[in-house]
Design goal:
Its EC number is 2.7.7.7. Residues 378-574 form the DNA-directed DNA polymerase family A palm domain. InterPro entries: 3'-5'_exonuclease_dom, DNA-dir_DNA_pol_A_CS, DNA-dir_DNA_pol_A_palm_dom, DNA/RNA_pol_sf, DNA_polymerase_A, RNaseH-like_sf, RNaseH_sf. Belongs to the DNA polymerase type-A family. Keywords: DNA replication, DNA-binding, DNA-directed DNA polymerase, Nucleotidyltransferase, Transferase. The chain has 574 residues and is of the alpha+beta class. Among the domains are: 7-190, Nucleotidyltransferase, domain 5, CATH 3.30.420; 219-313 and 344-382, Taq DNA Polymerase, Chain T, domain 4; 421-488, no CATH class. It has helices at residues 19-22, 55-65, 75-84, 97-104, 113-120, 127-139, 149-185, 193-213, 219-244, 253-262, 280-284, 289-313, 348-353, 370-381, 399-408, 411-418, 423-432, 441-459, 464-471, 475-488, 490-506, 527-553; strands at residues 7-14, 26-33, 39-42, 69-72, 94-96, 215-216, 319-320, 323-325, 335-337, 358-360, 363-365, 389-395, 508-510, 516-518, 559-564, 567-573. It has a 5-stranded mixed β-sheet, sandwiched between helices. The protein has a 3-stranded antiparallel β-sheet with strand order 12-16-15. Helix 8 (193-213) crosses helix 22 (527-553), helix 19 crosses helix 20 (475-488) and helix 20 crosses helix 21 (490-506). The longest helix has 37 residues, at 149-185. The two termini are 49 Å apart.
Length: 574
């Protein structure tokens, strides 16, 4: 019985993890009124003695849940599962404990429920799940609906209790921190953690609707490009073996390092443990066929992974339903999976810019082949609107640098934005000098990209060594460029330093929306990035919610489909 509980915790057990692809997958539903007794309703368990509940009972329960606050750990999944069986709870007040825990403890290595519970509640938190999996293996059961309901109930009860515990604890922490913040601000206007939580709470149902609608893919294009990507990746894999003189695991950093060491090649960039790094930036600095082949292989493999993900995850109608994570990054920025759409090149120009990663002796140094560039450009072409619709792309213009200019109150940068100047070109001029007359197109692209790398490198806390690697110059040159930059944009340098100093004293920083991040002394250099990227991310969330609400008010049959980088993709009917 739900009684008069205003808050109810819910948890679905399912026979699949893909509700948008596999339809009716609900095995049973766990329910727990706040501080009350939990119960489990089995709907599709194939074994055991428990009587199965009817779907009509599910709808009766749904009516009893309306008007209450519903708490889940990752609600978008449960909402999709329940809606497939006719119970639509998306418009009820929905709270996500993943988002809540991220707000109050943003440095957790994982926000998976059992791992959190093991750390904070019960060291044996994952034991019931392990025992269930052992039983499933012994009995030959492959999905949870094959487990007798009486055997799964303890497991479900545990998940409900853990979710309830994190809900209560996180809400109390938010209230405590906000009370302290208000006291310290002495009545001055300030954004609170509760404001951030309210923003996230409003966003959750809209993200569910975006996931539910999905985005259409050109099925024949995906199949064609997948075949091309497989062929190219295989060819580049062979090229790596030829350049190395032997076969090795291209995905194993220790083996890659060993091959380079065997050839007497050292990297100018080191890992956090002091070992040679062979990351993308490191490979750009190595003039050897193996480095070029390995960089090309990784680029092609990235393209292959996109198409393989599209092919495996789109439904029979060619619709792709990815999963958005509100709490995906520590800064508050979106992430996505199944597949990850956040790293797709924004347009073909992005791929073309990648060809001028270095510029030595008057020549642009290509790190990607023509075929790879075409592959990157083609990834975005896989997305097509539904019949009778078109895509409307809304992209922020240099949002993070505008936020940086606002935080730093740098008059030079603010005036540049006000006049509509190219900020990357302006930065390149400030750091490296004016663009020479009669410069070639490739040099101009490289020169502008140097400005872009410097702009974002400073925001992301990039040091001299990494900046030097990024732009293909010596540390001395990189330092002179950085010094010239701060001479031009003096207030930016002051902002970076003062933010780190304040974080070192307080142990945390708070962005414009009230989101906090606690940073240990050795990583305070990340504080400015959190403020800039975090504020930009919260701005995107706020505007995304506003767009969705405006479309409903206007009764338009259109819907945002996804975000890529700082771009919002809408599907609009003609």
């Amino acid at each position: 019985s739900l009684g008069d509980a205003n808050v109810v915790v819910l948890d679905c057990e399912t026979k699949s993890l893909r509700p948008h692809q596999h339809g009716k997958i609900l095995a049973g539903l766990g329910v727990k009124p706040l501080n009350g007794e939990s119960f489990y309703l089995p709907f599709r368990h194939k074994n055991g003695t428990f009587k199965q509940a009817s779907l009509s009972q599910l709808l009766i329960l749904g009516e009893a849940l309306r008007g209450r606050t519903l708490v889940y750990h990752n609600p978008k999944f449960d909402l999709a599962v329940l809606k497939n069986d006719g119970l639509d709870l998306v418009n009820e007040e929905t709270l996500d404990t993943v988002v809540l825990v991220r707000l109050v403890s943003e440095e957790e290595p994982s926000y998976e429920l059992k791992r959190l519970a093991k750390k904070y509640i019960d060291e044996s938190a994952g034991e019931r799940e392990r025992e269930l999996k052992k039983l499933m293996k012994k009995m030959g059961w492959e999905t949870y609906d094959q487990i007798p309901a009486e055997m799964i109930q303890d497991y479900v009860d545990g998940d409900l209790e853990y979710t309830e515990w994190f809900f209560i604890r996180s809400m109390a922490t938010i209230k405590r921190r906000d009370a302290a913040n208000l006291k310290n601000r002495a009545g001055k206007e300030t954004r609170l953690l509760a404001d951030v939580f309210d923003l996230e709470k409003k966003l959750t149902p809209w993200l569910f609707k975006m996931e539910e609608r999905g985005i259409r893919l050109n099925k024949s294009h995906v199949k064609q490009e997948l075949a091309k990507a497989k062929k190219l990746t295989k060819e580049l894999e062979s090229a790596c073996y030829v350049a190395a003189g032997c076969e090795f695991n291209l995905h194993s950093p220790p083996q890659v390092r060993k091959i380079f060491e065997r050839k007497g090649i050292r990297s100018k960039i080191k890992t956090k443990k002091g070992k040679d790094s062979y990351s993308a930036d490191a490979l750009k600095l190595i003039k050897h066929p193996l480095a070029a082949a390995l960089a090309s292989f990784r680029g092609a493999k990235n393209i292959l992974d996109y198409y393989a993900g599209f092919d495996g995850l789109m439904d029979s109608e060619g619709i792709l339903h990815c999963s958005f994570h509100q709490a995906g990054a520590r800064t508050g920025r979106f992430s996505s999976r199944d597949p990850n759409l956040q790293n797709i090149p924004v347009e073909e120009l992005d791929a073309n810019e990648m060809i001028t990663d270095r510029y030595d002796d008057g020549h642009a140094i290509a790190t990607l082949t023509k075929e790879e560039l075409e592959g990157y450009g083609a990834v975005r072409a896989a997305f097509i609107p539904r019949p009778g619709c078109f895509f409307l792309m809304s992209d922020w213009s240099q949002v993070e640098l505008r936020v940086l200019a606002d935080y730093a109150n740098d008059s030079t940068m603010i005036e540049a934005f006000r006049l509509g100047l190219d900020i990357h070109a302006l930065t390149a001029t400030a750091a490296y000098g004016p663009l020479p007359l009669n410069s070639t197109e490739s040099f101009t692209k490289w020169w502008r990209k140097m400005g872009k790398d410097l702009n974002f490198g400073l925001v992301y806390g990039m040091g001299i060594s990494l900046l030097a690697a990024k732009i293909g110059k010596s540390k001395k040159e990189a330092k002179s460029f950085m010094d010239a930059y701060f001479t031009r944009f003096g207030s930016v340098g002051q902002f970076l330093n003062s933010t780190q100093d304040a974080c070192l004293v307080k142990g945390w920083v708070k962005n414009k929306w009230g989101r906090r991040r606690y940073l240990s002394p050795e990583i305070v250099y990340r504080a400015p990035n959190f403020l800039v990227q975090g504020s930009s991310a919260d701005l995107m969330k706020e505007r995304l919610t506003a767009v969705c609400e405006a479309l409903v008010v206007a009764v338009l049959k259109s819907m945002p489909l996804l975000t890529i980088h700082d771009e919002l993709v809408n599907e609009i009917p003609y």
